Amino acid sequence: MRDGFIRTVLELAKENKDLELITGDLGFGVLKPFWEALPDQFLNAGIAEQNMTSMAAGMALEGKTVFTYSIGNFPTLRCLEQIRNDCAYHGANVNIVCVGGGFAYGSLGVSHHATEDLAVMRALPDVAVFAPADRVEAAAVAKAVVNYPGTCYIRLGRGGEKLARETIDHFEVGKALPVQEGSRVAIFTTGDIYGEAAAAASLLFQQGIKPGLYTFPTVKPLDEEMVRACARRYDLIVTCEEHNILGGLGSAVAEVLAESAAGTRLVRLGITGSYCTAVGDQKYLRGLYGLTGEQMAERILKELV
Amino acid sequence: MTSEQLAWKICRHDVEMTHVSGGSHIGAVLSVADIMGVLYADVLHFRPEEPKWDGRDRFVLSKGHAGGALYAALAEQGFFPVEELLTYYRNESRLSGHVSHKVPGVDVSTGSLGHGLGMAVGMAIAAKQDKKTHRVFVVLGDGECNEGSVWEAAQAAVNYQLDNLVAIVDHNHMQSLDFCERTLSSAPMARKWAGFGWNVMEVDGHDHAALRAAMTSSRQGIPTVIVAHTIKGHRIPFMEQDILWHYRFPHTGWEYDCAVNALHGCKPAGAEDPYTPNGIESPVLPDENADIFRDHTMGATYEPAWFRLQEVTK
Ligand SMILES: Cc1ncc(C[n+]2csc(CCOP(=O)(O)OP(=O)(O)O)c2C)c(N)n1
Ligand SMILES: [Mg+2]
After folding, report:
1. Which domain holds residue B208?
2. ipTM value for the complex
3. Three-point CA angle B17, B19, B20, nearest 5°
4. In terms of domains, do A218 and A295 share one?
5. What is the mean pLDDT of each run of 10 residues along chain B (314 residues)?
6. Which residues contact B188 (CB under 8 A, 6 or more apart)?
7. Alpha-carbon distance B289 to nearest alpha carbon in chain A (angstroms)
8. Same domain, A210 and A151
9. Ligand 1 atom, smallest distance to B145 CA
10. Of the candidates A103, A121, A156, which is a domain's last residue?
11. 3-class DSSP state of B68
């Protein structure tokens, strides 16, 4: 999805000379097509994320649409106040791209686990938050954020994600996308953990339960209407995200459900407890938090009894 | 163990660790191996059997992506079994790609560049306040010196007269996509530190005697920085100054075989290779399609019109 996203941004940039991409000294092998094709719309800001973000804001205020690019927590937490004051508050057209949400860089260690990014970005007023499931959603998000005013945050996977669908007929910022309707339980998922959620859905189907399955490429603004509609339709809503349980998709859904007094039960699946000190790859670390397809299916079955 | 032997073993372990795990940053490890070898063989005071001994010198590897170098040094000095090194990156391991303080002998985790000097400054302040006599050492990358936080800490170190603090800059002139000068130049590196008020020493970062001398000298009332001139990928010619080896691991075939044999070509007496004791007898050699001795830098194919990329001064 990372490569697809950048390819789409490159295509858009060829049509729009005010579209710029700034990297924080990352993207070997990924950004080369961009800097070769459009050198005057590309910068390497070096290992200086705070300055990268302030520069992006300055350029945006002069009429550019700027993508900042880095991995893990570097484009967000490292330069949080620059995002808040310089970008969001000024309504600057800065699109912050993070490659490697969640445990994508699992073995590299805690510094590289982006597991609070959705919560932190969601808490900032005037920042829209996206976490596409696959390359098709990623391409749609790339197109959408270029036209969406103000500051956006986009969390991407590193590649090889399972496709939720071949094409999207109509993508709209703030709208969830159904993969399938079902009964009794609805699974809401955001980001590239979709593959695990889909696996859980198939396992449940083998057990005679057809769950609803919905992707949320936009985490903020949240598709509240969809949440309320599902609350009416299903007995149980399960949110699934490769992110801390605090403040992400599950929390956003909980806020809507609590205020709508629907009484529908909610189970939030995500990362809990202290920082993850275990070492391992993405799949392994997901397993430690009950986030593999099998584990989620098992948990949902228990909740439905 | 001599510093030469330790430095070599760090290189050999890390070739194996990255080969087995598919891990990155072998170039960064080879760049810093001599610095680590001298520190852990001759300079730092520590007790492997008592990693938290209060009298130990503190050490921060701020360029945490070279964690493999620190793990190898610690294992060789007896903090944990050498065999554990091959769990690097693996599921259920303790050895994450970037430095982890969950490993015996490691004081602080790093991995996000630009944090280490500030933490070292804090440790040095605490030592002064508590009248402790140990020293604090921190190793930074030169690309890392792009970060503003490095220079905030640099000011603090001078402000608090931290003569118990030694920073070492692994000055290999390369960072993630290109040479530093073509990214965000920190040149002139030594004069920048001097301008901030530090005691600056410039040495060949692969010369152990010079490193040792610089690491053991200090000036009263001001912190010391050693600008160590290094070569990224040092000891393995096809990795030297090729940005590809910031990422790539030595794959089975000519890459691994030639890396191992390059190390055997410069093995100091008394250093034993636990993996391939006599090197590799009939190594696979690169064919004409091998991705070797090519320019992989960004600057090779990046030609903006509105500003001029700076000249590389290696
Ligand atoms: C804050 C932050 N931004 C980006 C990175 C990604 N990164 C890892 S290593 C590296 C290059 C480091 O260059 P340098 O400090 O010169 O170290 P060298 O590998 O040359 O020794 C980058 C950009 C990071 N780890 N931390
Ligand atoms: Mg460097």
Report:
1. 3-229
2. 0.97
3. 70
4. yes
5. 98 98 98 98 98 98 98 98 98 97 98 98 98 98 98 98 98 98 94 98 98 96 98 98 97 98 98 98 96 95 94 78
6. none
7. 18
8. no
9. 15
10. A156
11. helix
